[in-house]
């Protein structure tokens, strides 16, 4: 056990729904364990610029249901240099802060890894990203909400697609990882999913479309933004050129996937991980990400969480293949 008296929490990188629920959990559990707790505004930028304020329990009232982050988030190049990180360290030292919780994705954890190596301030991470691409945890905060947003949007698009007998290419977020694309494809009953992790050849897709055209009133193809054909517009253009008989449309869902009120699942996950992060600091841990694996709380070294590649679930890939005949 380490003697921790005072901690700070920040959100960094891309925002995700449920970050507020995680902030609330960190603040309330810190107070529960008799720690002083500070909020850092705008991520590492606020750490360097000393934009740090003490938070009371009432400051996090009525935020569990809100998307975005009350602490705001930012990208900060200065934190990538040891000099920038030393400024941040100095600000924490002056306030007597002896532990830090960072909520974010792999960039945030990369910065946190360096910071914890260079200073004596322990840092614990909470995975907050809609992409679900961090190794060592089954879920990241915001993923479930983003998935539900995609499903709701695609259901609506399906209504108009069926009315007009159209082929829709719908692009969802996931530059490096197809978690949102695969799960949403299953959930909406998509005719196909193009994922960064799976090499789908253009010829395969064409054959598939031809085979399906006779008995489907509408077709929805989910395209992860990072897949190999260059996104929904490129692949749609190609299909349209080769098959003028198709009534092709494209929809890029974009930033709506990051917003909105977090789902019950994300609120519970964020609450659980927030408490877990504070306990990890009290128990003397550092340079670890809190996660949940097979429904157990786990602590994963930052270097593993950001380095190892998380695989798509093979069973879900098989299910998707079986159900798209
Ligand atoms: P995310 O955490 O969502 O992946 P980013 O990749 O934008 O978001 O990273 C958030 C912040 O983390 C960056 O703006 C920067 O301050 C910090 N960061 C990212 N990469 C590094 C790095 N290699 N070294 C130090 N800090 C980093």
Polypeptide structure, described:
By secondary structure, the chain is of the alpha/beta class. The protein has two domains: 6-142 and 262-307, Rossmann fold, CATH 3.40.50; 144-258, Rossmann fold, CATH 3.40.50. 42% of the residues lie in helices and 17% in strands. It has eleven helices and eleven strands. The strands form two sheets. It has a seven-stranded mixed β-sheet with strand order 3-2-1-4-5-10-11, with helices on both faces. The chain has a four-stranded parallel β-sheet with strand order 7-8-6-9, sandwiched between helices. β4, α4 (106-118) and β5 form a beta-alpha-beta unit. α1 runs parallel beside α9 (264-282). The longest helix is centred in the middle third of the chain and has 22 residues, at 143-164. The protein is elongated and about 70 Å long. The chain binds adenosine-5'-diphosphate (ADP). Adenosine-5'-diphosphate binds at residues 12-14, 44, 75-76, 79-80, 104-108, 110-111, 114, 129.
Number of domains: 2
| Tally of individual helices | 11
According to CATH, the fold-level topology of the largest domain is Rossmann fold
Q: How many β-strand stretches? A: 11
Order of helices and strands: EHEHEHEHEHEHEHEHEHEEHH
Low-pLDDT residue intervals, each spanning 5 or more residues: none
- What compounds are bound to the protein? adenosine-5'-diphosphate
Topology diagram in text:
Elements: E1 6-11, H1 19-32, E2 36-40, H2 43-48, E3 52-54, H3 82-94, E4 100-104, H4 106-118, E5 123-127, H5 143-164, E6 167-172, H6 179-188, E7 192-194, H7 202-213, E8 219-224, H8 232-242, E9 248-252, H9 264-282, E10 288-293, E11 296-301, H10 302-307, H11 314-323
Parallel strand pairs: 1-2, 1-4, 4-5, 5-10, 6-8, 6-9, 7-8
Antiparallel strand pairs: 2-3, 10-11
Helix pairs in contact: 1-9, 5-6, 6-11
The structure holds adenosine-5'-diphosphate.
């Amino acid at each position: 056990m380490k003697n921790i008296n005072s901690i700070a929490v920040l959100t960094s990188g891309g925002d995700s729904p449920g970050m507020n629920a995680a902030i609330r959990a960190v603040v309330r559990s810190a107070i529960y364990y008799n720690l002083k707790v500070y909020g850092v505004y705008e991520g590492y930028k606020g750490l360097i610029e000393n934009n740090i304020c003490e938070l009371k329990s009432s400051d996090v009232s009525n935020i569990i249901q809100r998307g975005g982050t009350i602490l705001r988030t930012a990208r900060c190049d200065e934190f990538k240099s040891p000099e920038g990180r030393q400024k941040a360290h100095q600000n924490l030292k002056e306030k007597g802060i002896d532990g830090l919780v960072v909520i974010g994705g792999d960039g945030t954890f990369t910065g946190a890894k360096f910071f914890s190596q260079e200073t004596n301030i322990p840092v614990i991470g909470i995975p907050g990203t809609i992409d679900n691409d961090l190794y060592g945890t089954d879920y990241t905060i915001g993923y479930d909400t983003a998935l539900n947003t995609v499903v709701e949007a695609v259901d609506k698009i399906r209504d108009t697609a069926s009315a007009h007998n159209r082929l829709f290419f719908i692009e969802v977020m996931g530059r490096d990882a197809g978690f949102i694309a695969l799960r949403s494809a299953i959930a909406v009953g998509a005719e196909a999913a193009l994922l960064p992790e799976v090499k789908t050849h253009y010829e395969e897709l064409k054959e598939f479309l031809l085979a399906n055209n006779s008995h489907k009133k509408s077709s929805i193809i989910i395209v992860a933004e990072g897949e190999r054909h260059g996104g929904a517009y490129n692949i749609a253009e190609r299909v349209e050129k080769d098959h003028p008989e198709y009534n092709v449309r494209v929809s890029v869902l974009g930033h709506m996937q990051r917003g909105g009120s977090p789902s019950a699942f994300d609120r519970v996950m964020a609450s659980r991980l927030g408490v877990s992060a504070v306990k990890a600091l009290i128990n003397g841990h550092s340079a670890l990400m809190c996660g949940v694996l097979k429904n157990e709380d786990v602590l994963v070294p930052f270097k593993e969480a950001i380095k190892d590649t998380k695989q798509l679930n093979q069973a879900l890939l098989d299910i998707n293949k079986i159900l798209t005949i």
